[in-house]
Write a structure and sequence with these properties.
The chain has 6 helices and 4 strands; from the N terminus they run αβββααβααα. By secondary structure, it is an alpha+beta fold. The protein has one domain: GIY-YIG endonuclease (3-Layer(aba) Sandwich), CATH 3.40.1440.10.
Length: 124
Amino acid sequence: MSEERSDESKRARLWRAHAPASAARYRAGMPFTYMLRCADGTLYVGSTVDLDRRLEQHRAGLGSEYTRRRLPVELYWCGEFARIDEAFGWENRLQGWSHAKREAFAQGGLDAVIGWSARQRRTD
C-alpha cells in the first residue's frame, strides 16, 4: 500500500492537469503538453515551455500547418510537467493514441485509459 501511495505522489509531482476553460495564464518556462480541439473536431497534440504564447500562435494561424488549416482552435486539455523531456514524452505518447483514447484521457485522466488497447475496444 505504501508503494502504491508513493507512485501516486510521484505522479502528482510530475503531472498536473489544468481545466482549459479558465482564463488563467500559464507560467512561462514551465513545460506543458497540450491538446487543442480544432474546428473540424480533431485533436492536435503539442508541447511547449510557454503555453500562453503557443496558444496565441495557434489561434493566429502561426502555430502549425495542421492547426492553421483547422481554425479556430481551442485549448481542450493541458498538463504541466517538471521537465521538458517529460512533456515531450507525453506529447509523443498522446500522438500515438486514437481520437477516442485522447478524449477519454482528457475527460478522466490516466485512470480512464488504464488497460485501454485497440484489441479491447474491438471486442466491446
